[in-house]
């Protein structure tokens, strides 16, 4: 029987940070929710764009272009940003923040399989 | 300069129904917002899943499987559903409803280029 995916209900099932949970599949991509707080690591995904939609809280995505120049974009609820593939970025939250993120299935969240979180399914 | 995509701000720029507006690009897909009310047409996308996230209002997606059996899923704000590729579906809203939808760039929203809405960019 078809059932909706309720994002708040999924987010209520865990409390740890920076561990994305897969909630649906879309064209070979993982649709995920994640709770974040504090700073992640600088990384890039050479083969995929990175989709961020803030559901609750506030997320700053630091960006570094090919010349090394840094900028940043800050997102509140209902705001999204796509980090283009290959662009170095570092997500930072100064409060508990909930995100909907989308990446191709199997993409390591740190850009490096050795340090990536295991993506479990909720 | 990097700027967030504010979904409510984009939705405030138009009033017509069933005419998706592209607000961002992600891995060859259009990220779109759309306002809907009433019933759409039954259709299927043979080559792509169909992503629906309700931002405001309520959406029922009628579904018809290969045997012709109908079912339905109803989504409220913060709920999403992925219609698998090839599955016939008919979105219906009984009130003004706002959605975030994702399809490969160029996918006709009716499943048929002859009847599809032109996807403009906001």
From TrEMBL, chains A, B:
InterPro entries: Cupin_2, PKS_Associated_Protein, RmlC-like_jellyroll, RmlC_Cupin_sf. It comes from Ancylobacter defluvii. The keyword Ion transport does not apply. The keyword Metal-binding does not apply. Residues 31-99 form the Cupin type-2 domain. GO terms for molecular function: isomerase activity. This is Mannose-6-phosphate isomerase. CDD domains: cupin_YdbB-like (cd02226). The lineage of its organism: Bacteria, Pseudomonadati, Pseudomonadota, Alphaproteobacteria, Hyphomicrobiales. Keywords: Isomerase. PANTHER family: 16.7 KDA PROTEIN IN WHIE LOCUS. Signal peptide: none annotated.
């Amino acid at each position: 029987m078809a059932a909706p995916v309720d994002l708040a209900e999924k987010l209520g099932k865990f409390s740890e940070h920076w561990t994305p949970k897969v909630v649906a599949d879309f064209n070979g991509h993982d649709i995920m929710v994640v709770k974040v707080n504090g700073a992640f690591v600088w990384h890039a995904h050479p083969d995929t764009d990175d989709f961020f939609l803030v559901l609750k809280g506030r997320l700053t995505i630091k960006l570094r272009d090919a010349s090394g120049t840094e900028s940043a974009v800050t997102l509140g609820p209902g705001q999204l940003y796509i980090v283009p593939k290959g662009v170095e970025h570092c997500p930072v939250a100064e409060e508990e923040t909930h995100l909907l993120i989308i990446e191709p299935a199997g993409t390591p969240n740190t850009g490096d399989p050795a340090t990536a979180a295991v993506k479990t399914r909720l």
